[in-house]
Amino acid sequence: MVFRFTIHGEQVTISIKPGALSVMFDTREVITCDRGGRLWVLTRNGRTYRRGLNGHLLEKYHAGDGLIRRRVVDAEAAELIDSAAARMASLRDSLAKEAAIRAAANGNGALEELLTLIERASHFDAAAHVADRKAFEQVYDPVGILPPDQYMAVVVQATEGCSFNTCTFCDFYRGRRFRIKSSDEFRMHTRAVRAFLGDSILLRRSIFLGEANALAAPTRRLEAFMQIAREEIGDLPIHAFLDGFTGSRKTASEYARLGMLGLKRVSIGMESGHDPLLTFVQKPSSAADIVATVTELKQAGIAVSVIVLVGLGGDRFAAGHVADTVALLNRLPLGSGDIVYFSTLSERANAPYADQIRAAGIRPLNDAELREQRQAIVERLNFSSPGPQIATYDIHEFIY
Questions:
Q1: Which end of the chain is more exposed for a tag (fewer CB within 10 A), N or C?
Q2: Alpha-carbon Rg of the chain, whole angstroms?
Q3: Residue 133 falls within a domain, yes or no?
Q4: Domain that residue 102 falls in
Q5: pTM
Q6: How far is it, in rounded angstroms, from Cα 276 to Cα 273?
């Protein structure tokens, strides 16, 4: 539903969608809020700011031939959020003064809804933003990472940490022990998540069962988790991470039972098909594990996304990484509804990988070599039609 007004000589276009309210002022500025009033996206002066539920802001803009992304510092974030709230408050006041609009709103559900949503957004100022961030921290442990197709999911944390936590290139869960919550504990958590989100949940498209490897939990426990998630959050498709080593221990019939409870897609960090490279980075899975896991999932009717790390192993492992990753991907029964993600390796500050390759005399690939490696893999893929989607997984885009 779209409304257009001219206010103080400025063209204002307002769009109400099932999950959000978007306001464009002329063509210079766009403010998008969810239905709970939380700022979601602000576009201004050629720059886009996206706010996560955790209160972090990600700025994106083009400079020269490149895309710049940075996390906005707290003081700057507060100024931006205050300015967006003030803009919405001014719009609210201007609309309230328009007699024609007030008259039209009398008994008109759409206009009444519009004014309610603008009112909510006008109150989401810097103080509300800080309070909301603190509330998030009471409900959630840090949300380390999600697959790109799940950035708009409702995350519910059935487990904490990673079940193996040995990969040298990853620091998302370091210092945190793996723990599976009890059913009662998980229900309390999901109720807290639902209360925290309020009407903001209408922007969310799925449920993500966290954290790093939640499907490592016993099947009976997972069945309880999924039932609770659907009862407390809603009838949304469920997604989760899984590693190939643990995943290969479950059968197609087990996955089918989880599918009946809403499991839609499983994301697997295969990283590479080259077993010596997986051993080098202490990834506790093999190409054979990936084949077994994906086969069982597909037999159960569960969609799959697999993640390839471009650049992993640097120059020493490059040839084996390409050849064996191509061979592995071509063995997998992937088709329509599945995804092959290519993620360029990003050296994490608290991960041992950088020191590991330096000690081994391994040279990281440069930008041109990274592009060539991805292209070398993609060009040799041979899937039946319709095949899986080929997509980019850029962890710098992640914010929850």
A1: N
A2: 23
A3: no
A4: 2-127
A5: 0.94
A6: 9
